[in-house]
Amino acid sequence: MVTSDIHAHIFPTRYRSRDDQAGLGLAKAATLIKRIQHKAKEDTIVLTIDNGDLIQGSSLAAYLKENYTEGIMPLFEVTNLLQYDAGVIGNHEFDYGRKFLNKALCACHYPILCANILDEKNHSYGKPYIVIEKKGMKIAVLGLTTQNIPYWEPEENIKGLHFVSALEMAQKYVPFLKHIADIVVIAYHGGYGEKRIKGSIQEQKSRTKENEGAALSKIKGVDALITGHQHRRIATSINGIPTIQPGHNGECVGEIDLETTHKIVKSGYSKLLAVAQEVPDTEVSRFLGAFEKKTQKWLDKPIAKLGDGFQMTDPNMARRKGHPFINLLNQVQLQATGAEISAVSLFNNEVTGFSTEVTIRDIKINYPFENKLVVLQVTGAQLRAALEQNATYWKLYNDHAIVNQCTFGPAIPYYNYDIYAGVDYTLDISYPVGRRVRSLSYHGRPVENKQVFRLAVSQYRALGGGSFKMYSPKQIIAEHSTTIPKLVIEYLRANEDLTPDKLKHNNYRILPE
């Protein structure tokens, strides 16, 4: 059984309101997992694995980080109640730095695996694998993590670590593990580069090696493949290997069943087990219940009052046409940094903007990531390249610009589409990729390739995250110590009764309209 990308969602809520209920969360998953563990037949071996990204992403995690002396440590400790056999390091486990992660790993009563992240002594950061012996069978579990973490994490969070290709490390370990174990399972906090996940597939060509799942499935000796990171729901066989990816936020538990004869795998299949109808586990709920109540009270704390016009009903239309809420986010970044240009994203299609009374809950709904704000020094050529990358978000359909699912597949990374302020630009999606920026000007004059600007962006984007390879840490000329959500709070408190007309308006066009 597999959980993956829980993202600190313990209770069945998305925290959109105090009484919000959702069919997800580790407490519900725990009920299902414990039932299967306890009801397993005598000749059945049950392993339970968490596949990473356990601790970051919910309002509960944000509350613990800001208000509890031990920070988010309870989110690791609660997993000990589920009798996991192993866990895998996810990319978001590094969000709080190595010092905290080292402490957190020690709090887990089960081994944490990761073969392809190496420390200063070239040793695996965490155990590379574990061999579990039950009922006369030896099952090897190899832990791997997407190697793209340096694109997303600041240097201080991963200092001294070296990130190797998951595929290369699997090719090294699998033959050895097949020699010492009867069954080899890869638990990979990474996914697939392609949209269609079925049958015999090849890895989609990419400039990065963020998701190497298809290549891993073709390694001789692998009996089962666990994936994650992309938040997709996948249960199928690929290149003859059963594979699973159980979504995110604890909405599903993944199950891979292997049938063996004389210790040889004869068949295997995978399935997703939805947790929506489960009752939250009492033990898990009791362990974190007091923190959950405090989180809900904290979320309802008022921040400021605004004028009408900042609420949003259609995020994708806002990306195309602009919106006062987007203007507000860009204004926060421009004022905090003094940069000439700013770029922000709408992280998902659940953002609602702000009503006239803003609470901490509204901040968390609309800006769920604790990103730091940085200033890049960029040239006009780099700015144009970034806008061209932005333009790949769209495709032409019946003479209209629509989201390009041919590029992104079902898991569209909305957070990788930026809206810029400080420059005027036009993207025409009827033109070929790479030639869609039809105009780009600053203060009414065309931007020259060698012209230099200060650009305010999130640290994630500054590190090149989202395939924005024209940006790099070497271009960072200033860093803000305060996270962007806190900067938004400070701005709102300093600008009570703000109205849309007090902000700079839409300065771009997406064609055809």
From TrEMBL:
Q: Where is the Calcineurin-like phosphoesterase domain?
A: 1-232
Q: Which GO terms describe its molecular function?
A: hydrolase activity, acting on ester bonds; metal ion binding; nucleotide binding
The terms describing its cellular component in GO are: outer membrane-bounded periplasmic space
Q: Where is the 5'-Nucleotidase C-terminal domain?
A: 318-471
Asked whether the keyword Transferase is assigned, the reply is no
What protein family does this chain belong to?
A: Belongs to the 5'-nucleotidase family.
Protein name per its UniProtKB record: 2,3-cyclic-nucleotide 2-phosphodiesterase
Record organism: Liquorilactobacillus oeni DSM 19972
